[in-house]
Design a protein that fits this description.
The protein has 745 residues and is mainly β. The chain has five helices and 52 strands. It is elongated and about 175 Å long.
């Protein structure tokens, strides 16, 4: 009967449905012919209504056909006898549709269907047997599509088939769990299966599969593909009906095109032509070549590809002209493409494409501008590059240093480094200028001139020499203080600022200076100021230290003028903590800020007066240690400080309170330390020690005892209150404090 199939509307078990027997006959169906179909006994008729049958031809119902349904020992026979006036030609789709038929009550195959086309007297015109229907399993997947796997050289050529499909109309009464794709290389009987693949699914799984890429199907061979859905009806997985794709021929990537011509076409374009590849992806017959791709590059390895430097040809076109290209030497490669993708390319040797009448030129992206002034720092490595090129790729370039200007001391220019651009081999040259300036060159300018020219005997461009002069300036530092503007802003104090403190106390002086181009190094000079105002330089001053990690948020950060992080504001904190031997002194301290090479120095002087008769406890110092430093005892100091309270709990540091060491005595004209000491029952040696201003600049301690005091000159004295005994009306005298009644050590 030709091609035939059975379609059951509902494949669920035990369900009333309609069954369609469809075939396309190879023979004529007479106007009085009879169609007889024998159903397997697994079906039950007259369920849900009386079973009826209809006949149609290409979807048009035959109203003259008389149908009859009977059951025999071999099956259920459905006959449709025509009573028409015209025959049905071969190739028409004939369908016998039977309604109100119940599917079997089991999961599995219904058994075979037999179909016969008879004459009215029962003679056979044609007959055939149709495979049974799988009940409880899915119907065939729809819209099965296939294509060759895509890949372009240099990717692996997989020689595989991509498959896609749509869900079956009927899942057989149970959700579909997976699909099976079968690949056969012989025919639709699928007797020569070369690969089977499975795809587990859920509601969102894309319905696509690919044959095994490791298997590599045979190129040039037509393959047949069937897709079947699987469900787990009844607890066991089973295959449904197969959906079939149009047969597909497996194709490989094509081989290399055969090169022909590659030449300059005009000033800015090249022409390329080629022949088809010998292998197109399959033979007998050859697979069609559908397209070509041509790429142009400026190096043999094609490391830099520009989209505009490619062209595409379709079908039989086997030549092309590039778009406008920059001058240079180019290489080309051509790819052939088929249904799979592009194969390996054919490579063309380089061809030159140059603009005429081009002269040597400076590379301004690298070379400093003519007569530009570049800043150089003393002690820092400095460099720049000079580069020249010729757009004629056949030329070479020579770059020289001008003999008239030469090079400054401590500067050099490297030998020329020859490279190429746009496909040239030697049409670029560059040289590096380096300099390490010293202090003797600070504040001076140096000019170096260069010349570049074509080095060929017969250059394509104009044989022109070009010149460029570049100036370097060795910078001097620009030193200045960053001054305080508001009291308490922690910036550098003004010139002549005055500070006062007592021994053991701490004075902090913030310093901020700028030295454009260079680092700042801080230092100081110290002077002693005599009573008459004379200032005498001393080598150093005890108690001074610098903290160069000090910073403040009030100042801007270090600007970067020259590519080095050495610029703008530098800070330090000068700390002064005088000792007991410095009491009563006045000092002038001149802070210095210099560049790192000491080319420039700026000074800022302040005055610090260290008082007497008072002191601060230093960190870790006890009251007894302080008393020992002043050659007295803690009890004497405690007695001189009636508000001290508990002598074991005394604050130190920033919140410390001043401690009275003694009392200030205003001298009378003509008095000496010795006469004052005698009057207050005190030791003159201790007085001289407690007043170090008496022994400045060569005055010995012995001489200081009889040094004549100035009217009103202050002395710190410690009357021995706790060690003075005055019995009755007699003369007072001193005794050791430890001999006092109730003394506690």
């Amino acid at each position: 009967v030709g091609l035939a199939r059975v379609v059951v509307d509902d494949l669920s078990i035990g369900t009333s449905t309609t069954v369609h027997i469809q075939y396309s006959s190879d023979a004529v169906l007479p106007e009085d012919g009879v169609i007889e179909v024998s159903f397997p006994l697994t079906y039950t008729f007259n369920v849900g209504g009386t079973s009826v049958a209809n006949v149609s031809y290409d979807g048009v119902t035959d109203p003259t056909a008389v149908t009859n349904i009977t059951q025999t020992s071999l099956g259920i026979s459905v006959k449709a006898a025509r009573n028409d006036t015209f025959p049905i030609a071969p190739g028409v789709l004939i369908s016998l549709d039977v309604a109100f038929v119940r599917t079997p009550n089991f999961i599995g195959n219904t058994g075979f269907y037999n179909i016969s086309v008879l004459t009215p007297n029962g003679a056979s015109i044609s007959r055939g047997t149709l495979d049974g229907t799988e009940i409880g399993r899915p119907s065939e997947p729809l819209n099965v599509q296939v294509s060759n796997c895509q890949s372009d050289w240099p990717d692996y050529d997989p020689r595989c088939i991509n498959v896609s499909w749509s869900k079956p109309l009927d899942d057989g009464g149970s959700p579909i769990t997976q699909y099976k794709a079968v690949f056969d290389r012989t025919d639709v009987t699928f007797a020569d299966i070369v690969n089977s693949e499975f795809l587990p699914v859920n509601d969102t799984t894309p319905l696509t599969m690919t044959s095994s890429k490791t298997l590599q199907l045979q190129e040039g061979v037509t393959h047949y593909v069937r897709v079947e859905a699987i469900n787990a009806n009844g607890g066991n997985e089973g295959l449904g009906a197969g959906g079939y794709a149009t047969p597909i021929r497996v194709v490989s990537q094509p081989s290399t095109p055969r090169s022909a011509t590659f030449r300059a076409n005009s000033t800015n374009r090249v022409f390329v032509s080629w022949f088809p590849p010998q292998f197109t992806g399959a033979i007998n017959p050859a697979a069609p070549i559908t397209r070509y791709r041509v790429e142009f590059a400026r190096d043999l390895n094609f490391t830099t590809l520009i989209a505009s430097d490619s062209l595409f040809a379709i079908g039989e076109d086997r030549s092309g002209v590039s778009a406008d290209l920059n001058p240079g030497r180019y290489w080309a490669r051509v790819y052939a493409g088929n249904a799979v993708g592009y194969g390996p390319p054919a490579l063309y040797a380089g061809t030159a494409l140059a603009s005429p009448l081009v002269a040597v030129a400076w590379d301004d992206a690298v070379t400093p501008p003519s007569n530009s002034i570049l800043n150089v720092l003393v002690g820092y490595n400095f460099s720049y590059t000079v580069k020249a090129f010729d757009a004629d790729v056949t030329d070479s370039v020579q770059l020289d240093v001008g003999a008239s200007t030469g090079l400054p001391q401590r500067a050099s220019v490297s030998a020329g480094e020859v490279t190429g651009i746009n496909g040239g081999d030697a049409n670029v040259v560059s040289r590096n200028y380096t300099m390490l300036a010293d202090v003797t060159q600070a504040g001076t300018f140096f000019e170096t001139c260069y010349s570049a020219t074509n080095a060929n005997q017969d250059p394509l461009g104009v044989p022109l020499t070009i010149h460029r002069c570049i100036i370097v300036s060795v910078q001097l530092p620009v030193m200045r203080w960053f001054n305080s503007t508001t009291e308490g802003d922690n910036l550098t104090p003004a010139e002549g600022s005055r500070f006062s403190l007592y021994p053991g106390c701490v004075a902090e002086v913030p310093l901020h200076a700028t030295s454009v181009w260079y680092k700042v190094v801080f230092g100081y000079e110290a002077y002693v100021v005599e009573f008459d105002g004379t200032e005498v330089r001393i080598p150093s001053l005890d108690g001074i230290s610098f903290d160069t990690t000090y910073t403040t948020d009030l100042l801007p950060g270090k600007d970067n003028f020259t590519g080095t992080p050495n610029n703008y504001t530098w800070s330090a904190l000068l700390t002064y903590q005088p000792g007991a031997h410095q009491a009563g002194s006045q000092n002038k301290i001149c802070m210095t800020a210099s560049d790192e090479w000491l080319m420039r120095t700026t000074r800022r002087c302040i005055y610090i007066t260290t008082g007497t008769c008072k002191a601060c406890l230093r960190s870790g110092q006890s009251l007894g240690a302080l008393a020992a430093e002043y050659q007295t005892d803690w009890l004497q100091i405690w007695a001189t400080n009636p508000r001290m309270g508990n002598p074991d709990v005394i604050q130190i540091g920033a919140s410390a309170k001043l401690i009275n060491i003694g009392v200030l005595y205003k001298a009378r004209a003509g008095e000496t330390p010795a006469t004052v000491a005698e009057r207050i029952f005190w030791n003159v040696e201790r007085m001289v020690a407690l007043n170090p201003q008496l022994t400045t600049f060569g005055t010995t301690a012995e001489a200081a005892k009889n040094r004549t005091l100035i009217e009103g000159q202050s002395l710190c004295v410690v009357p021995p209150v706790c060690g003075l005994i005055c019995p009755g009306e007699g003369r007072c005298y001193r005794q050791a404090v430890s001999q006092n009644a109730g003394y506690v050590a």
